[in-house]
Amino acid sequence: MLRFYTVMKRTLFTALLSICVISFWISCGNSSETSEVATTQEVNTSLIYGDTSYRFPELSEAAKKEIFQWSVFEDFENELKFINGSNIEALQSGSERLIQHTDSLTKKIPEKLNTQAIVSRLLVVKTHASLLHQEVHKDRFENEEIENHLQTLNRATQNFVEQINGKFAKDQIDLDQQDEEAKELEKQRRLRDSIFQAELRDSEG
Asked: End-to-end alpha-carbon separation of the chain, Å?
């Protein structure tokens, strides 16, 4: 009789242990599914980031002629237009390409544009492109942070283009000043020649 009770106790204990293991396994499975659902809910592909009416800063006519030789600049411009008004998936792929374009820009700067001021502005653009890329690829990204990075990137690009335009505007001012100086020198030369000719006629008379 005692042996019977011992066997029953062991059987009952094994059954209870099995139930606990199964319950734990089911609980873990549900927890995993809940976590997966929660993660999926956070990725809202209908949410649009950036300025949907974004317009790339206007280049001056003189700058456009030089930028034409900087072929990757157009790729950079198109990519920046693309990521403004994009969802998270487009931002993830677009920011990847944007980093590649900014990297190429820093390696292939035309001689006329290779000034400290322009290069420093370009490096700022590259830095903010990298920060945007890091944010959109986080497991748990912040919508507000993405917007902040996009706005900062847009402003950095504005400063970059303004520096390019400013460089050519200054070059034009210097050129105009040189023309004015040349004209003034020519005017003075003619005046001296005129005085010399007058004095020569007086001496001959």
From this structure: 160
> 106: which 2 tokens?
């820093």
- Is the CB of residue 129 less than 8 Å from the CB of residue 152? no
Letter for the amino acid at 10?
A: R
The counts of H helices and E strands in the chain are: 6, 0
Predicted TM-score (pTM) above 0.70: no
In angstroms, the CA 164 to CA 125 distance is: 14
- CA 41, distance to chain mean position in Å, is 28
Q: How far apart are CA 104 and CA 58, in angstroms?
A: 21
Measured between alpha carbons, how far is 124 from 149 in angstroms, rounded to an integer?
A: 12
The rounded distance, in Å, linking the Cα atoms of 192 and 136 is: 72
User: What pLDDT was estimated at residue 203?
Assistant: 73
Residues 131-176: pLDDT tens digits? 999 999 999 999 999 999 999 999 999 999 999 999 999 987 866 6
Residue 7 pLDDT > 80, yes or no?
Answer: no
